[in-house]
Structures are given as C-alpha cells and as structure tokens.
Write the structure tokens for this entry.
Amino acid sequence: MSLTTEFPLTGNALLLFKSRLEEQRSELTRSIYRTHDEMRELADFEPGDLIDKSCANFSKESTFSNYRRNRTQMREVEAALERMDMGNFGVCDACGGLIGLKRLQAMPWAKKCIECQEQSEQNPV
C-alpha cells in the first residue's frame, strides 16, 4: 500500500508526527534513565523500622511500575517510527484500513484504527 496516494497525510504532516515521536522518545529515554537510577538508590537503601520498610517497598513498587510503563511506551514509539520508515504509518495492523487523523494526533503510536482497537479490548485473546 502506498501512503503517498492513499493516505491523507502530506509529507509535512508526516514530518510533524515523526518529530513528535522522536521528541517523545527522547523524553522517555531521559525518564527511563532517571527511574533506573532511582531503582539503584532504592536497592541500596537500608530501612530502619517497619514504617521505613513499608515506605521503601511502596517506593520500589511505584518506581518499578513507572519504569515498566515507560519501557512499554518506548517500544510503542519506536515501533511507530519503524512503521513510518517502512511507509505504513497510519495503517491499521488488524484490518489494513487507515487510522483516523484524530486518533493519530492523540496517540501517534497507535497500531490499530479505533474500531479494531475497541473490538480487541472487548474480545481479548
């Protein structure tokens, strides 16, 4: 499928999406490194009493959750940039149709059109 004739985005719009995704990748990279450092600091922390241990455990869980979420988001952003390089950015992985512009503006890493995404959420495999 050639996006230049079938996809409504112009070269400039694609460049804007690419710039936005690259900016997000940079932000996520900084956040991942920061969170990784926090995890190392928490691993070295020696809690004193039960309250300290409870707070430390909560901090560890929260930090690890942020790290995991950022890594997942990073994979999605990188996959979107790959789709852009391959020429199929904005094409639904499920049905092959076009992903709506509003959806791409909200989530430029989206792999599915809104209909297919809703269907996959209603009927998880």
